[in-house]
Known about the structure:
This protein is an alpha+beta fold. The protein contains one helix and five strands. One of its GO terms (biological process) is fatty acid catabolic process.
Amino acid sequence: MSKTPEGILSLQTIAMPADTNWSGNVFGGWIVSQMDLAGAIHAERLSQGRCATIAINEMSFLVPVKVGDVISCYTKILKVGNTSIQIQIEVWDSHDSSREARRVTAGIFTFVAIDGDGHKRIIAK
Ligand SMILES: CC(C)(COP(=O)(O)OP(=O)(O)OC[C@H]1O[C@@H](n2cnc3c(N)ncnc32)[C@H](O)[C@@H]1OP(=O)(O)O)[C@@H](O)C(=O)NCCC(=O)NCCS
């Protein structure tokens, strides 16, 4: 794995108290939903329309996220098919200048371009 983020910055937010579990760490599910949003932003920009998540693969959580951490989601297109887009999504967190940004998690998400009726549509290349 690279020591710097791969891809483009598609979403940035801050972990809030409501996003934590009983032990004070941020829920993994909250992080996955930020990744989903970041991937959708990139997929919808590329396909010029709506997209739906069809698969999430190869997730791994490396370090815990704390309240107040700045979460940055980086997205990189791996493959564009007829109707689908496979995206590598990395999450990095930073808090203040006391430590360097760290990779929190990474995963491969697949989005399908859909039309207004929710049916798949061809991605123009
Ligand atoms: C997205 C949806 C319209 C796709 O319709 P579909 O007829 O099932 O689509 P297909 O099986 O033909 O697959 C469409 C594309 O996704 C790819 N795909 C399907 N299942 C996949 C999987 N498990 N992993 C990766 N890619 C997958 C196919 O290879 C195809 O890609 P291509 O056209 O680029 O070759 C439909 O599955 C759907 O509505 N799913 C729910 C989406 C949703 O609500 N997501 C939010 C989370 S609840």
